[in-house]
Amino acid sequence: MEPSQQVEIQLGHMCNNRCVFCVSGQRTAMGEAKPLPLAPILERISEAWASGHRKITLLGGEPTLQPGFLDVVRHCVKTGFEEVVIFTNGVKTARGQVIDDVLATGANVTWRISIQGATEEAHVGTTKKPQSFKRILRTLENLQARGERITINMCVVQSNYAYVPAFVDLVERFGVVQLHLDMMRPLDAGKRSEEELREMIPRLSDLRAPFEAMVNGFEARLPGFDVNLGNVPYCVAPSLAPWIHHDGNLTETVAIDGDDKLSKPWNKYLIKRRDKIKAETCRQCVFDDACSGVFETYAQFHGVEELVPVTAAQLVQLDPKRRLLARQLRPLTTRLRGEGFSCGERGDAEVELEKDGARFRINRNPGVARYEGFGVHVLAEGSGSVHRNLADVLADEGYKAIVPLGERSAARTVAIRLRRLREQAPFESLRWTRLEVHEGRAELDFHAYDGGRARLWLDETEGRARGGYEVDGSPTPGLVNGMREVLAALRVRGGR
Questions:
Q1: Is-cis flag, bond preceding 61, omega within 30?
Q2: Helices (H) and strands (E) in the chain, counts
Q3: Residue 404 CB burial class (10 angstroms; 0-12, 13-18, ≥19)
Q4: Of 95, 277, 425, 473, which one is least surrounded by beta carbons within 10 A?
Q5: Helix or strand holding residue 183 (H, E)
Q6: Which of 393, 236, 397 is nearest to 318 (CA)?
Q7: pTM score, two decimals?
Q8: What backbone torsions phi and psi does residue 210 show, to the nearest 5 degrees?
Q9: Pairing of strands 276-277, 266-267
Q10: Is-contact 244 229, C-beta < 8 A?
Q11: What is the pLDDT of residues 31-46, one digit of tens each?
């Protein structure tokens, strides 16, 4: 639902909360946060539109405190922005009239609510404002009553991380569509002493249990809910890898600079990496290319001993639903590149392969071939030898076949029976380990789990099917039962 390119503009530092991790609340408390002139803000909005942005996020401090806030929203609408995200702490919007005034501008709004704790204790302990959580709840009620799209953001600190499992109830109660938790960035915390930073930065290994409890709660009650964990090193909680991300969609940020003026746009995620480091051992991790490491301040306080590389074999065990299938298959694609295949990842769970005109797609859906954990789809036939090449590599790399890959040039009656076998697989006591088709004839190998082996052949003569099989050695009970299943599947009714 997110466009590939977006812009966010900070309307000023003024804020009515005092979050322990935030420079804006600190500057407001020190009397340093002032209203910004409206004209430069409107100018930056027009420039963002002209450069191609169609989604804009309005940030603070607290953006609703700016005297010209509604004028800013109106200008976004007039300029043509398709979506306006209002990133608010929910204090002023506890009054429904504030929300109605925003909606009266005609903006297509997403409300990104800054909830700094899933319970009152956690939120108030982080914002340092006694009534802030009650106002948040009224804001959520107001937005839900108006059918508005609600997302939630939380900055992970010592005072709130243990309470995150309670977000499941909050999200379900108010129809929230997304929850984003992000690690606190020390450089964004303002002027803090070492003691203050130590008090607010939790140890990464302590996050695993509450984060797993939260994600498991969502999976049980709201399957597929969009919860994501920002800047958590994957090795800290590798079972949560499908929900972890570092960086995001291309985002330009216009922020308040050191002279309290609006900056020129800068690449948000490129800048956010400048104070992060990684351990030398991180190069051995399957997530090395996706993980940006830890903040330097964290490493100074806690070291990097927690950062233990995740292996490809561990990932297979940690991700049984194959949400990260493309990453799991990297040892395979490395081998295939050595065999002359070109390989490309399409998102987290899909890989495309090409060689000599043959093209394949591997994903979690059943394909013309099925292996434990994925299917192989044939996009272009190409050379039959490429099919055999891919099948041999899959077998050599230890991928167990349910329906092995083979050419699709079988004779008509043979193809019908192969289709029936594919539909019936897997068989209870057999693994279908090989399929080869040559000049219309198919040869299939089956291995029983108790050690028995058999080879079956299918052919066509004058439009009629022929076939047979031979057993390698003595037939085992598992092979006998399994071949009965195979032969039953091959009986095609209706004269086809």
A1: yes
A2: 17, 22
A3: buried
A4: 473
A5: strand 178-183
A6: 236
A7: 0.80
A8: -65, -35
A9: unpaired
A10: yes
A11: 988 888 999 999 999 9
pLDDT band of residue 115 (cuts 50, 70, 90) is very high
Joined tokens for residue 301: 């306080």
Q: How far apart are CA 7 and CA 78, in angstroms?
A: 17
- Map tokens 């929230």 to a residue: 176
pLDDT by residue (tens digit) across 64-82?
Answer: 999 999 999 999 999 999 9
Q: Is the pLDDT of residue 463 over 90?
A: no
Helix ranges, 252-397 (H): 268-272, 296-302, 312-318, 325-328, 330-338, 384-396
Tokens 């991928």 label which residue?
399
Q: What is the dihedral of CA 400, 405, 406, 407, to 10 degrees?
A: -170
CB atoms within 10 A of CB 342: 12
Q: State the number of CA atoms in the 13 A half-sphere of 196 facing the CB.
A: 13
Q: What angle do CA 275, 280, 283 make, to 5 degrees?
A: 100
* 456: helix, strand or coil: strand
Contact between residue 13 and residue 60 where contact means Cβ atoms under 8 Å apart: yes
Closest listed residue to residue 87, CA positions, set 63, 105, 106, 68: 63
For residue 402, how many other CB atoms are within 10 A of its CB? 18
Give the position of tokens 């198919």. 442
Element (H, E) at 480: helix 477-490
HEC letters along 51-111: CCCCEEEEECCCHHHCCCHHHHHHHHHHHCCCEEEEEECCCHHHCHHHHHHHHCCCCCEEE
DSSP-derived letter for residue 278 is -
Tell me the Cα Rg of the chain: 29
Residues 6+ positions from 482 with CB-CB distance below 8 Å: 427, 428, 429, 430, 446, 448, 452
40 neighbors 262 (Cβ within 8 angstroms)? yes
Q: How many percent of the chain have pLDDT more than 90? A: 70
* Crossing angle (nearest 10°) for helices 96-103 and 132-145: 50
CA geometry: angle at 99 spanning 98 and 101, to 5°? 65
What is the DSSP code (8-state) at residue 279?
-
> What distance, in Å, lies between the first and last C-alpha atoms of the chain?
47
Q: Phi and psi (nearest 5°) for 385? A: -65, -30
